[in-house]
Design a protein that fits this description.
With about 190 residues, this protein is an all-alpha fold. The protein contains six helices and no strands. It has one domain. Helix content is about 90%, strand content about 0%. Helix 1 runs antiparallel to helix 3 and helix 2 runs antiparallel to helix 3. The chain starts with a helix and ends with a helix.
Length: about 190
């Protein structure tokens, strides 16, 4: 594979890895938006959010009239904590940490069970799509390492070739100088 193809492959793999890792940010952010909507009495709900935060929000919404705003604060704190966990997973996944992808996928599968119990198949289907999109980051980690290795080898070969060429050039230049010196010495001897 030529260097241009290797670079293009590397860029595509980096994009895939970044895209997969960013799913964790989207999940966290949209879950928090769901929290705000539910706790302010809205009816809009994103299918992208987490089932766990929706359960917490439902309890808070139901018990808020009886226990006051304290329960709402606890719900928001728990939701933010869960979102922060997904943000951290996304951060480490973006740094090519395989464990982050695996941990995030396991947590998201467990979260998807909530939608299975609720028979919310649209959210469950989206969880499946998101999991597949996140999963694509795992092979990208391995393939990216291989692409970088191949690119490094290509660069080393180019560097070695350039050194050989410069050595050949220096050798040719030395031969020319030696020949000129020899001719000059021959001329001096003839002039004597």
């Amino acid at each position: 594979m030529d260097k241009t193809s290797l670079i293009q492959n590397k860029l595509q793999l980096e994009s895939r890895l970044r895209s997969s890792a960013h799913w964790f940010y989207w999940i966290a952010g949209l879950s928090l938006i769901n929290t705000i909507v539910v706790l302010t009495g809205g009816s809009l709900n994103f299918i992208f959010g987490l089932g766990a935060t929706q359960i917490i929000d439902s309890f808070a919404y139901y018990f808020a009239p009886e226990y006051g705003s304290f329960i709402t604060y606890i719900a928001v704190a728990l939701d933010v904590l869960i979102a922060c966990i997904f943000i951290l997973i996304g951060k480490f996944a973006g740094k090519r940490k395989k464990w982050a992808f695996i941990t995030g996928m396991i947590l998201y599968v467990l979260d998807g069970l909530v939608f299975l119990i609720w028979a919310d198949y649209l959210s469950l289907g989206f969880h499946g799509f998101a999991l597949y999109s996140i999963y694509l980051g795992l092979p990208a980690i391995k393939n990216l390492a291989e692409a970088e290795r191949q690119l490094a080898e290509e660069v080393q070969e180019d560097h070695a070739l350039m050194e050989d060429r410069s050595t050949d050039f220096v050798d040719e230049e030395d031969e020319v100088v030696a020949e000129q010196q020899s001719e000059a010495m021959d001329e001096e001897e003839e002039n004597k």
